[in-house]
Write a structure and sequence with these properties.
Family: Belongs to the class-I aminoacyl-tRNA synthetase family.
Strand order of the largest sheet: 1-2-3
Enzyme class: ligase
CATH architecture of the largest domain: 3-Layer(aba) Sandwich
CATH topology of the largest domain: Rossmann fold
Largest sheet: 3 strands, parallel
Radius of gyration: 21 Å
Bound molecules: adenosine-5'-triphosphate, magnesium ion
Number of strands: 5
Number of domains: 2
InterPro entries: aa-tRNA-synth_Ic, Rossmann-like_a/b/a_fold, Trp-tRNA-ligase, Trp-tRNA_synthetase
CATH superfamily of the largest domain: HUPs
CATH class of the largest domain: Alpha Beta
Helix content: 55-70%
Pfam family, one: tRNA-synt_1b
Number of helices: 14
GO molecular function: tryptophan-tRNA ligase activity
Structural class: mainly alpha
Length: 329
Amino acid sequence: MQSVTDIILTGDRTTGKLHLGHYIGSLRSRTELQHEYRTFIILADVQALTTHFDHPDVLATSVRQVALDYLAAGIDPNQATLFIQSMIPEIAELAQYFSMFVTVNSLRHNPTVKNEAQQRGGQDMYYGFLGYPVSQAADIAICKATLVPAGDDQIPHIEQARKIVRRFNELYRPVLPEPRILQGGRLTGLDGNSKMSKSLDNALYLDSSAEEVSTKLVRAKTDPARIRKHDPGHPDICPVYEYHRYFRQDDMSDIHEQCSKGAIGCTDCKRLAAHAVNMLLEPMRERRHAFAARMGDVDEILIEGTRKARTTARETMSEVRDAMGIGYF
Ligand code: ATP
Ligand code: MG
């Protein structure tokens, strides 16, 4: 479905380090797509404030932490443009223009906004939190991005971004492309109950040591119906089998069969899954180690990426202002 002219925008809120769920949701596909398409990756520190405005200390460390996660995962700064949201004021300007014609009701009814508001206690919503999809539409539009690799919770946001861009083009002039989502997988957490997530304490982080991976995986929940070692298992509902599917390089039909017949115990199965995760993380550990030893270079990558993204943002905004008739002189 991708076309050679696609431009990619993707990224993460900088609220802490990344885990395997982020990898499966979109980071994995970014490392592949960066070689084929113009790719922008946003460190969304302004959007981090929608939930962390009272913890600015988290943002300060997270920007570099997430940048290291990207570089460790194989994002190549010569291929992808890594940039910091707060350092591109044109994004805030575009979000402001969009906000004039986005209704509060359409934001309130956005299923992901609703869900996340409920998770946060359903209290009165902050203006910035409610406006998150508008700000995200501006991130995408400012890069003229057409493709957004993201997890399934982002579907409503990308749909809303499409509508916002369409409306802008109808109202003024067709200068902004409509983006599509490139949907990644969804990884279950170690508790087996919900998706892997920082705040649920059920995550395996990309910077885990081999020992941490093994220790955490050994404690992971498995098929609840399987009590004794030789009981037949149900791999299709077992989170550990899900890790085999996502992380093992070879054919998993043997594990599926052995588990279903009760021929392999959960502990052995978890050991194999831990090995597969460690095979993925080992090259990441090496790259992380190398980049962490020269954080000055990491800062340079961010400064240079932000400079490049800002050039694009200025070009887009000049077209946007022209289309709106507010470029006066
Ligand atoms: P929090 O617990 O603070 O909500 P989180 O760990 O769920 O944090 P987010 O910042 O909410 O992480 O997620 C960023 C994006 O990464 C999400 O929009 C989603 O697309 C993707 N993502 C996060 N967790 C997973 C997961 N377990 N599986 C697939 N994608 C995920
Ligand atoms: Mg989340």
